[in-house]
Amino acid sequence: MSNELKVGLAVLLAAIVTYFGVRYLKDQPLFGGGYDLVAVFDDAQGLTSGAFVRLNGVGVGSVRDVRLSPDAREVFITMGIDGDVQIPRGVQIGTSGLSALGEVNIELTPPAGGDAGRPLVAGDTIRAISTPDLFDLLAGE
């Protein structure tokens, strides 16, 4: 086997290991799967890509992208939800954690009552509720 072929195979193997390593460290499914939902926030409160998405405190995905709207009045959050998780319609969405500590996540809360109808599907958009963070609450006191 020639040296060029050995180097080429080593580079290819390194690229594959890097790809799967980054997906693993970002808590994303290794082989794709799942679906994306979009949340619209007035204030992302320090939310960043890679943050956890939790439903009733259980990890069900991660934040894939955080971007401002063209007029900079809203923040669009793309969430990758694990394939076997169904998010009910009417779910409330907000942030949890403290941006000062660098630990801001998305918390999903199912609607009250058991019957939420059909679940959300890929590409659906959820409007987030505005919740003040701890510093806003303390400043108000």
Topology record:
Blueprint: H1 3-25, E1 35-41, E2 52-55, E3 58-68, E4 75-81, E5 92-98, E6 103-109, E7 125-127, H2 134-140
Parallel strand pairs: 1-7, 2-6
Antiparallel strand pairs: 1-4, 2-3, 3-4, 5-6
Describe what you observe in this structure.
The structure is a single chain. By secondary structure, the chain is an alpha/beta fold. The protein is built from two helices and seven strands, in the order αβββββββα. It has helices at residues 3-25, 134-140; strands at 35-41, 52-55, 58-68, 75-81, 92-98, 103-109, 125-127. It has a seven-stranded mixed beta sheet, with no helix packed on it.
Largest sheet data: 7 strands, mixed
Q: Main sheet: which strands, in order across?
A: 5-6-2-3-4-1-7
Helix content: 10-25%
Mean pLDDT: 82
First CA to last CA: what distance? Answer: 73 Å
Beta fraction = 25-35%
Apparent shape: elongated
> Strand pairing plus helix content: what structural class?
alpha/beta
SSE ordering? HEEEEEEEH
Give the uncertain stretches in residue-range form: none
Q: How many helix segments?
A: 2
Please compute the radius of gyration using only Cα atoms: 19 Å
Strand segment tally: 7
Question: Summary?
Answer:
This protein is an alpha/beta fold. The protein is built from 2 helices and 7 strands.
Based on the model shown, name its key terms:
2 helices; 7-stranded mixed beta sheet; 141 residues; alpha/beta; 21% helix
